[in-house]
Amino acid sequence: MDLKKSPKASLEDKKLFFLLIGFVMVLSLIYIGLEWTKSEVTVYDNVNSDFLVEDELDVIQTSQDVTPPPPPPPAPEVVEVLNVVENDKETASIEINTEDDKDKAVVISAPVAPRVIEEEDNVVFQVVETMPSFPGGDMAMMKFMSENIKYPVIAQENGIQGRVICQFVVNKDGSIVDVEVVRSVDPSLDKEAIRMIKSMPNWSPGKQRGKSVRVKYTLPVNFRLQ
After folding, report:
1. Residue 51 half-sphere exposure toward CB, CA atoms < 13 A
2. pTM of the predicted protein model
3. Which DSSP state fits 219?
4. For residue 82, which phi and psi values (nearest 5 degrees)?
5. Which stretches of the chain score pLDDT less than 50?
6. Class of domain 124-223
7. 181, 190 in Cβ contact below 8 A?
8. What are phi and psi of 157, to 5 degrees?
9. Torsions phi, psi of 117, nearest 5?
10. Distance (Å, whole) CA 67 – CA 147
């Protein structure tokens, strides 16, 4: 069986009323706590304003008297003294002839050509504009070397081979002189390379500024066994 509560016994309608009474009581207690004090507060009617307001200092700008510097001393007066000399002395007269001498012949000398220093015959160039060359070119030189080199028998028996580098001078007329070995392999191979180079025909000489000159040339000679 369900129990039914009487509307008069319900407190939901009076909930707002009790909440407002609680707020009033809390505010009352707070006010009483703030106003309640044990010490007495004394209020003075007359307060000396001299202790509250600081004295104001008036700052007055003063002007300083600036004494101007003394004027510079006057410049000393320059007295120009003129010595008057009597005009009783004779001076030597100079005659200036401004006319050209028409009787003199004007000689115009021919310009002197600059002296050309010719190269001496014993000057040997390393590099020139046109290097000396074997007649017929490099292919003809290789053919000549292969046909005229005789491999030394002693070098063949000992299995000696290598590259002999020689140097020589090609004269103005194309002849070959001063043959020497700059890198040796074997005395027999060196001797055969020098013999073969000396047996070459005259080369086309090297040229510098259109003139034939002496040029040093380097030629390697290969000796290889088959």
Report:
1. 3
2. 0.47
3. E
4. -105, 125
5. 1, 47, 51-61, 116-117, 119
6. alpha beta
7. yes
8. -65, -35
9. -90, 110
10. 118
Looking at residue 15, what is its pLDDT? Answer: 75
Residue 130 gets which letter from DSSP?
B
Q: Say which amino acid occupies 43.
A: V
3-state SS assignment for residue 127? coil
- What's the longest Cα–Cα distance across the chain? 176
Q: What is the DSSP letter of 163?
A: E
Side chain identity, residue 78 = V
Using DSSP's 3-state secondary structure scheme, residue 35 falls into helix
Confidence (pLDDT) at 59: 44
Quote the CA–CA distance of 11 and 153 in Å, as a whole number: 146
Question: What stretches of 77-205 show up as alpha helix (H) in DSSP?
Answer: 138-148, 153-157, 187-198
In tens, the pLDDT along 49-94 reads 554 444 444 444 455 556 777 888 877 766 666 666 566 656 555 5
What does the alpha-carbon distance between residue 6 and residue 43 come to, in Å, rounded to a whole number? 62
What DSSP state is assigned to residue 9?
G
Structure tokens at 79: 């007295």
